[in-house]
Amino acid sequence: MICDRSRSSAGGSSTAPAGDRLTLALGRSDNLTVNDLRIRDRTAADLPHCVAVLTEVHRLDRYPLNWPDDPELWLSPTNALHAWVAETAQGAIVGHVALHDVGSAADDPASMPAAEVSRLFVAPGARGYNVGGQLLAHARRWAAGRRLPLVLEIVDHPRSGPAITLYERTGWRHTHTATATWTGPDGDPVRLRRYTLTEDA
């Protein structure tokens, strides 16, 4: 999962709201295959379903680290470029990813504008089927078609291990680790691993 940046998450509470648990329309999990999935543009009507998935992800993985006051707004910040969902043949949304406009690097104003991979998450019941990999690949193709370099940040924590493995296996390069300008739900500092991906990766 991708980290939650301070401008979107620091003001939220630390836990997801109570409510019905997500029931995925997957049937038996071992019946789900890569061929059952399609990646499509996210629509406004998808947002409540995305929030339901995100609630389960937060309960299991503490992502986002700080639960936002308005999850739908958190999924649709003003700097959003595009967003996609992964959907099963039965119409269940089981994953989400977005690209956000982050402009040029702060330490190099002359650098090429970049897009940040963000809000990447996969429903707990749909893991192990390369849903995250398909979402990342789709976002990467979209960015490559527009000659946009990609960047991302992820919380430097053991829980991030599977996601870090996915990124590094698919060509992402770890550039540095730094302390976030925002804090965790307990006020503790948060360390972020930062990655880049160029078209020739």
UniProtKB/TrEMBL annotation:
Gene3D superfamilies cross-referenced by the UniProt entry:
3.40.630.30
Cite the CDD domains for this sequence. NAT_SF (cd04301)
What's this protein's name?
Answer: Ribosomal protein S18 acetylase RimI
Q: Identify a single GO molecular function assigned to this protein.
A: acyltransferase activity, transferring groups other than amino-acyl groups
Q: Which InterPro entries match?
A: Acyl_CoA_acyltransferase, Bact_Acetyltransf, GNAT_dom
Q: Which UniProt keywords apply?
A: Acyltransferase, Ribonucleoprotein, Ribosomal protein, Transferase
Residue spans of biased composition, Low complexity class: 8-19
Please list where the region (Disordered) is annotated.
Answer: 1-20
| Family matches, as Pfam families | Acetyltransf_7
Q: Which GO terms describe its cellular component?
A: ribosome
- Which PANTHER family does the UniProt entry name for this protein? AMINOALKYLPHOSPHONATE N-ACETYLTRANSFERASE-RELATED (PTHR43877:SF2), AMINOALKYLPHOSPHONATE N-ACETYLTRANSFERASE-RELATED-RELATED (PTHR43877)
Organism, as annotated: Micromonospora eburnea
**Taking every annotated instance into account, which residue ranges of this chain make up the domain N-acetyltransferase?**
37-197
